[in-house]
Amino acid sequence: MHRDRRDTLTAADGTRLAHRVTGSGRPLLCVPGGPADSAYLGDLGGLSARRTLVVPDLRGTGASARPVNPATYRCDRLVDDIEALRAHLGLDRVDLLGHSAGANIALQYAARHPHRVARLVLVTPGLRAVGVDVPTEARLALALRRAHEPWFSAAFAALEAINDGTGSDWEAVAPFRYGRWDEAARRHHAAGRPDNTDAVAGFGAEGAFTPAATRAALARLTSPVLLLAGEFDLNSPPSAVAELLDLVPGASVTVQPGAGHYPWLDDPDTFTASLLTFLGTA
Asked: Is the Cα torsion angle 179, 181, 182, 186 positive or negative in sign?
């Protein structure tokens, strides 16, 4: 088992940013979603046995300080923090992973700093940065595939209410985010809730995303890209993730069977095998 090492750096605006380093092997810079404490990523299903995971806490989350200017919570501005971390690590190029909302940061980073990205992994990615929308019908159709689950009736009713604007019980739909809604999933969900409402609200503030410009820049990206989707993930359905294949040259997609939004929890062996095949271990 590898002990986490903690480190900090000072961003250009003076905000102290924390990150943890765990594992062995070549570094993999892992951008969390949320925005939430990056602890929810754990060691990505044991990936730290083969790669050194560098996991930042986005500003205002985890051990990172809250900025003086809340406008810096915006997704496009968080790209600057990732670049500051790369420079702090002394890496000319990085293997970069983005999960969920963190994939929006990673995509914008790759668009802005393509020469700094060796390989890019997007795990159950958020797609706002490239303007890919997920139709409500697609989410509901995917949800119906879980109709045999004991929690389905209450969760599906809450999902329909959210989609038609008559409800907002996001806790009730939490089981859809996991391949198995067991005790481990319940603990993970409880521990991973975002707790900085300013960071959450600011992430997608006006100007955070410029899809046309990001698409144009990504069309020139030469780095290999792995898109990893979960078979049952309502947040980032495989059909939506696959749209990136037309936007990013050299991208490939893998759909992990039986997985939800956190595939390293649902089947860590399959998850790590997919990533190591793509990333290599040397």
From this structure: positive
